[in-house]
Write a structure and sequence with these properties.
By secondary structure, the protein is mostly helical. Helix content is 79%, strand content 1%. A hairpin with a 2-residue loop joins strand 1 and strand 2.
């Protein structure tokens, strides 16, 4: 009877899982097929939109790579994301550890207060942030984004890491200190290796957030060679009412694939990171 029940449960679960897997993969399929479609095939209402009705073409990729600064956009995105992630870790890790271990009762309240700043809409902060960038003379520079982005990556990541540090028993740190480590040494040698899931979650969250951010990137950078992917692709490939759909889909697909692969290989760690951070924090 147990075997029969498992078979019935499998028949009930697998169709649902298959549906959601296809549903999740459909945007990638749509971007891929649009990237190789000829313009006539793309805009003809008589053609099947889910198939290549005409021989594939590379003209959209050629337009994207050779006639725009797309490779420069990728480099700028990687550069800004890497620096923002580094700043976020340097600030959020000691802040979260201090609030989780030393702040006592008011540490959790303060942590929630820090997290609430992440919920403030960017449109409300746009004017003061513009003033900051103007005073620092960082307009048209990638450093304008590097200065602004940590203001909303650090609060959330601090709150998330607090949950991880609280989930690690204090006895482990105390034992490390008995063995001769300082408080800082115990954190680096013991606590951080046990918080790999949380650190990885913070890295991916901060990087993807910088990749997708649009408002500040649009406002602070207009020089094409300094733009990131999120703003460079739409501004260079949309001209008035002319949308270069094939190149737009290629520009969306190429940077999204590494992130999708990263999520796939480290999915278990991400789930552990968000659930522990939410439950314990």
């Amino acid at each position: 009877m147990a075997a029969g029940r498992r078979v019935r449960e499998g028949f009930a679960v697998y169709p649902v899982v298959t549906f959601f897997a296809l549903f999740s993969a459909f945007p990638f399929f749509w971007m891929l097929i649009t990237m190789f479609k000829r313009d006539h095939d793309l805009f003809s209402p008589a053609n099947n939109p889910f198939l290549l009705n005409e021989p594939p073409t590379l003209e959209h990729l050629d337009l994207l790579i050779n006639q725009t600064h797309f490779l420069k956009y990728l480099f700028n995105t990687l550069y800004v994301g890497a620096v923002v992630v580094l700043i976020t870790l340097v600030v959020a890790v000691p802040a979260a550890y201090s609030l989780a271990r030393w702040a006592g009762r008011w540490g959790e309240t303060l942590g929630i207060g820090i997290f609430l700043t992440y919920l403030v809409p960017p449109t409300l902060l746009f004017i003061p942030m513009s003033r900051v960038i103007s005073v620092l003379k960082l307009h048209e520079s990638r450093w304008s984004l590097i200065v602004i982005y940590p203001t909303f990556t650090i609060p959330f990541c601090t709150w998330l890491l607090m949950g991880f540090f609280k989930s690690i028993p204090r006895d482990i740190e105390e034992q490390a200190q008995i063995d001769g480590y300082s408080r800082l040494g115990a954190m680096v040698k013991v606590v951080l290796p046990l918080s790999v899931s949380g650190l990885l979650t913070v890295v991916v969250f901060a990087f993807t957030l910088t990749m997708h951010e649009f408002i500040y990137a649009l406002a602070f950078i207009s020089v094409s060679a300094h733009k990131t992917v999120s703003i460079g692709v739409p501004t260079e490939l949309v001209r008035g009412d002319v949308f270069r759909w094939g190149s737009l889909m290629a520009g969306a697909l190429i940077p999204s694939l590494p992130v999708a692969v990263l999520y796939t290989f480290f999915l278990d760690r991400f789930i552990a990171g968000f659930t522990l951070g939410a439950v314990k924090g």
